[in-house]
Amino acid sequence: MNSVETLPVERFQAGDFKSDLKPIWCPGCGDFGVVTALTRALAAIGRPPHEIAFVSGIGCSSRIPGYTTAYGFNTVHGRSLPIAQGIKLANPELLVLVASGDGDGFSIGGGHVPHVIRRNIDITYIVMDNQIYGLTKGQLSPTSPRGRKTATSNFGSLEDPVNPLLYVLGYGASFVAQGSPLDMAGLAKLIEEGIRFPGFAFINVQSPCVTYGEEDQQLKGQRTRLQNLGAMGHDPSDRAKAIELAREYGTKLYTGVLYRNPTPGPTYGDGVAQRHQTLQKQAVPRHDILKRFIPSPTA
Amino acid sequence: MNSVETLPVERFQAGDFKSDLKPIWCPGCGDFGVVTALTRALAAIGRPPHEIAFVSGIGCSSRIPGYTTAYGFNTVHGRSLPIAQGIKLANPELLVLVASGDGDGFSIGGGHVPHVIRRNIDITYIVMDNQIYGLTKGQLSPTSPRGRKTATSNFGSLEDPVNPLLYVLGYGASFVAQGSPLDMAGLAKLIEEGIRFPGFAFINVQSPCVTYGEEDQQLKGQRTRLQNLGAMGHDPSDRAKAIELAREYGTKLYTGVLYRNPTPGPTYGDGVAQRHQTLQKQAVPRHDILKRFIPSPTA
Amino acid sequence: MSNDLIIGIAGAGGDGVVSAGESLITAAALEGYHGIMTKSFGSQIRGGEASCRLRLATQPVLNPNGPLDVAVALNWEDFRRFGGELPVESRTIVIYESNTGVSPDRLPLEGVKPSVVFSVPITQMAEKFAGTAKAKNIVVAGLLAGWFGIGRESMLTGIRKKFAKKGAEVVNGNVCAFQAGLDFAEAHPLKEDRKLGAPEAGRQAKLLTDGNDMCAAAAIFAGCNFFGGYPITPSTEIMQFLDREIWKYGGTVFQAEDEIAGLGAVVGASFAGKKAMTATSGPGMSLKTEMLGLASIAELPLVCVNVQRGGPSTGLPTKAEQSDLFQAAFSAHGDCLRPVLAPVSVADTFPITVEAFNIAEHYQTPVILLSDQEISQRKETVDPIDTSKFQIVERRRPAGAELANYARFKLTDSGISPISHPGMEGGNYLAAGIEHDEKGRPTASGEMHAKMNDKRFNKFNPLKNRRDLFVTIGDQDAPIGLVSWGSVAGVAMEALRLAKDQGMHVKLLIPKLLFPVAEPVFEDFFASVKCGLFVEQSHQAQLYRLVRMYVDVPRQVKPLAKSGSNPIQPGDVLECLRKLVVTMQCNPNHQPEAMVG
Amino acid sequence: MSNDLIIGIAGAGGDGVVSAGESLITAAALEGYHGIMTKSFGSQIRGGEASCRLRLATQPVLNPNGPLDVAVALNWEDFRRFGGELPVESRTIVIYESNTGVSPDRLPLEGVKPSVVFSVPITQMAEKFAGTAKAKNIVVAGLLAGWFGIGRESMLTGIRKKFAKKGAEVVNGNVCAFQAGLDFAEAHPLKEDRKLGAPEAGRQAKLLTDGNDMCAAAAIFAGCNFFGGYPITPSTEIMQFLDREIWKYGGTVFQAEDEIAGLGAVVGASFAGKKAMTATSGPGMSLKTEMLGLASIAELPLVCVNVQRGGPSTGLPTKAEQSDLFQAAFSAHGDCLRPVLAPVSVADTFPITVEAFNIAEHYQTPVILLSDQEISQRKETVDPIDTSKFQIVERRRPAGAELANYARFKLTDSGISPISHPGMEGGNYLAAGIEHDEKGRPTASGEMHAKMNDKRFNKFNPLKNRRDLFVTIGDQDAPIGLVSWGSVAGVAMEALRLAKDQGMHVKLLIPKLLFPVAEPVFEDFFASVKCGLFVEQSHQAQLYRLVRMYVDVPRQVKPLAKSGSNPIQPGDVLECLRKLVVTMQCNPNHQPEAMVG
Ligand SMILES: Cc1ncc(C[n+]2csc(CCOP(=O)(O)OP(=O)(O)O)c2C)c(N)n1
Ligand SMILES: Cc1ncc(C[n+]2csc(CCOP(=O)(O)OP(=O)(O)O)c2C)c(N)n1
Ligand code: SF4
Ligand code: SF4
Ligand SMILES: [Mg+2]
Ligand SMILES: [Mg+2]
Q: Whole-prediction pTM value?
């Protein structure tokens, strides 16, 4: 089942998805680019804002729903995915987007990621990965490189970072991509593709923190490192190759679709819909439910 | 650094590690075999019980520390790993073991697994994987196969199971093994190896639930399926091969060491020890710490 | 003749003790009797000891407690393991398995010598008639049916049904085993006839279920469409029932990876416009704390059931306690109020669960429903419920002009603002855990924060006058007052009867709404009260303390509070009342010792 | 001459407003003045508005509040954004940047016309002398040093130090900019001399720090060896300080993946025998609920700091509130008690943190330390502390015979059982979240549960007589009583002074131990009290309600409670007191309206 019906592109402009709340991100923050790319993608998709539920956790990045005209839910730290799953299951008609930061998504919220993926719930998950805790002013993040000095790792981090791309591939995700606001058109396209993908889609965005981030993560620093997977001729249906490329997270900076399952399996929603259809005829009226408790003789 | 010094093997017998608390597992439960294998491994290791901290969460499997003479800590559901890490960091001299169930370890506790692994904290983690929630009487577990009917999946599970072996390999674990009480000697050996391994070691045990488990998971059912990796000639230093084998979790049943990093990296404890050594000379006496707050003129 | 019979049966795990109890209570329900059955097991999952306790009566049964009228021991080691849970007195009729080799005048029971004792070759009878020791429970059922006059027909029907698949021979064998029990009873009549009299309200069959299933059924009736949760004893059966039923109504049961995600999904479903619930017990409640706070500030309706067990921490997972009330009221950080309701019985679980949904939807709030292990897992006969008498409340959705310049958190007089949901055109807004203005925009303004706190608290004021959520029994002007709640309320009700029998002028207040504390209701109740007791199963006397926060409780009203696992008995209440009254009469100004157990 | 000066400075993020304030308070501390400085920012991480509020005095300063004596506006839009946080009155001396183009008699301030107004070309002076507008803060420092007589020497030293690396020219430019400020002030003298008088206690330099750093330092002093936690505003600086220091002592700072794991590691470290702590704020506290319960039943010592911010949920992350007291006392499921302590100031954070560790270790319990955003992040001058006066408590470890047949949870008279840890031979035991017997073996026995609950509660009884954890100010027999806690206690202290000045016979009780409620202390305090107020920054008046649970608070003692963000002012307290006294005099039986804000 296609999760999103394609509507005439002209129906909406990116501006229709921008709210009048003024972002309070630091000037130059990468997240400005993400909201721009996202609103472009949404215009391309063509679903009206009120049919979109946009969920986030807590962090600079998680402020993003408020800057769109969708129904937004800026929840609590690390719990955007469970809440988004509840929304999608409660109303499968909605387009459900989730935004998160590297800390929100892979530290406190990391325990929810494998489960949404193995359930294959049809939502699009965008992580703004700046390798730092921005909102709380510069602490170690799970994607900060080993040795990195931050406000909570004054003598350097002693741990290997999380590899978001590799993890989600390992969990069996069917759509895995990485983008950067440096390539705005590309990022918008990736988000659009993720939304159109029938099933769970993950997009890691290298969205630099200008205030607490390192030099080489800034858009300027990215310029020399960014390698476009499309231009490289990567075949996104090649899972083994995708895993190989994902391994280089932290050293290389690839953008584009790493993996798109050419034969995606059923979504959770598909299973639920089928079950509803099969079982609905068995329902007794809700007001007769107590009849279940009329005893029958037993030994 | 070797995490465990080898002492004369004769020093202890398996019996020295068995407490006089009578297990309240169902007769025939696979976990009986795990405690037996473990106490044998501990006898082989030769550390006295009081130098061992044995932590678990909640579940039938998590009762195991009480059946040993080690310092035990039967904590809360899903949190054995954080607690064990605190113990190991607070006292690196201790031998720290952790036991868990498939639900405890990969559902509620799944968020802690990547982090202990990327930190490479030197503890041994044994999961008794029975593909069911035993203690709460037979609900869907994250390792239950798709379609499985349980007390909470009356119409069959709609989700793909977790793959414990693949996940921990993806997280970068340096020692990954799988055992079964069916091969008691092998299991004891695996646990011993895991303990001796300098760094985080993971051992998945196919420990059947006789009360709520499926037929083919019982020891009897395992007999026809079990394939010993050693006998197969698997080279545990081959990570790619290990990943390939791990993928077959749920269809094939391999026992033995899937992966042992031939050149394991530093443990977290190594980093801490080094830091302690470097920084200790900078310490002012604790009672003079307030001198930090004597102001110096600023502009 | 008896009008109230308490039967205890204990044996090893495989002895069929519980199924004997179940067939008896089923038969009783079909014949119009009132009954409650509780089960208790050792800590083993399988193979340990098992017992059940059955109270059957011709009039409503208020609790399963009290010393046994009848004790059945399939073996003595297991029977004794239940200790205080199966208290034998000299008047108890004891029935036991002969092959235990114990002589009737040397029962292994400390300090009691029951006068009526039957040694019965139960296993032998089972083997002889049904050809298998497995039929022991059938023999026991026959014995009890014979001596106490219940369930003969219905149990025979049950036997025929149960063994039908195994062929006529097996059916016959079991029928004979049952008949052997009946015959034994007839051959050894009791000196005094102890058969149960006719049910007072006639022989109309009753419903039979436990608190968890009742809660789940009530949720479906109330329109619940989404359940998100994680298994935990003793609440799991709610999820299990819903998983069998809710899909039929287009609903969903979502087994999450933990309790945080379980409630998270519920919050999401509620945001998406659906009636949603979760159910858990203590440890799960603790994990849900943060998410409950989010639901409060985002003003999202949901029902969160806590089936209380003994605490703290893992505590006593299979025993009842009333020690999560403080948590229900106060666990979240920040100032925030969520209503807390508690049913007193399995039957009461129906209206109170429906009420929980109604309050949640009307006030746009999480509601905590405090059940407990006893109510949740005891089987109870329930009078047929006329569901057409119940009102179902839907959340107030914005319409027309309200959607023109929609303000989700509009400061209205009632404090209740029409709530939209994704999919509703024009209702778009930002929900958040952060403080916000009327439009949902984040703010750090102290003025706005104060206004929103006022809104979020004041909207609940009407609840404090919901007198229908309180039961008062006894004379309005009685000088002695009892207050009790949850499963213990049934004990207090029985104590009230006993106290009245002894000539005490006493009344009882049972709040089903525990929080916010309904000051007017308590003040009215205490107006006539000189002394009394809060009867509750917690170390801290949590309701007593909670009420004190908001109400000037008369000084001579004291807590009778005990830690969980060993239930409070009506006799305990009576004794405390007597002491209190005596002290008061000697010295009306005396402040007796607190009775916190 | 002044003895108490409140200065407010506001500007854009890059204006150096906070660094001007910091150099002033540093200078003041070095000269022996008392001072408090608070900062406030817009919600942006960078580039938004910034302000600081500085209170300097010749005698101890009790709180940073009150209307401004001096207002400095680098631009008016930003200044106005702080609204009630920087209240200007007609007596306020207003200094502002000329280039705002505002004329001195048309200041954009609603409803006030300050009589003393200086328009100063601050940017121009900075550019002229230091060659850069960045030196604006230096000019402002010069202006303030000039008009109010503080810090000339120390700020000059500071300038030389700070710019030394940039060469003599830059140093010189900044010195000149500072001098230009001084000169301007000299050229425009105030009609009335407002220079600060000499510090009452002499010119001995004071320490200067904030509550978070003080808490961390105290932890190190108390012997803390392990910190596990997760960043959250406004508590993160505790972890950050410890990460800079604790390694030097062989300790560890463990940044966990979430708050559950953070506290989990602390529980583990404590089990392993080490003094351990965590620090967080509301949302993190909510997540720690389950783990705190585990520590209580396993009787493991640890300190859990909650730096309170506005709630519920994400709430107001950068504002102070006192609304997590209920949670501190009651969040865990089951019956369980953990002591709650709260310091009243940065200075007080030292002894109270040490006490938290001592209580944790002595009673083998988690202790909640309730700080708040204001204390934690305000800079405060602190009199030198003689650390040799403090006792450090270590947990009672088993030895000799106690290890022979070791029972970890031995039922002793005090309720405290010697505690072993892995590595100690003979001390092996099973710790657990499940109820246990003396040896730590799991049990479901109601009797054992009751005994263990008794032990776990009764062991804290001695705490209720720790009168050293309470401060009473004023006459013992005063009929008017104030109670206040945490950062608001300083406001109450100032209100007390004002009330006494107005001839009211009033006293003040400041509990630093909030839970368990020390009945004897409160009862003694209330013995003379006819009316009064609980002064606190929460919607629900949480301390008032908490005390009522255990103590019969006189009816005319009412809460003066307000939601957070906008601090309670001494004047508010005074006004309420006056109303209360008047009402009481007219009609002593009248029950005034609750004053819950
Ligand atoms: C339960 C909880 N813990 C901690 C916090 C504090 N907190 C807010 S955002 C954040 C991390 C921000 O980092 P990230 O997720 O990478 O987002 P970014 O700000 O970098 O976009 C933290 C620790 C919180 N709000 N709630
Ligand atoms: C916070 C919390 N949630 C839920 C539970 C209930 N519970 C106890 S064990 C368990 C799962 C047991 O399954 P598993 O971890 O696979 O262990 P097993 O019993 O199969 O060995 C659950 C859900 C609990 N004790 N605490
Ligand atoms: S702190 Fe970093 S992530 Fe946050 S708004 Fe500023 S630049 Fe962006
Ligand atoms: S329920 Fe299953 S896992 Fe638990 S003790 Fe019994 S057999 Fe073992
Ligand atoms: Mg980040
Ligand atoms: Mg399991």
A: 0.97
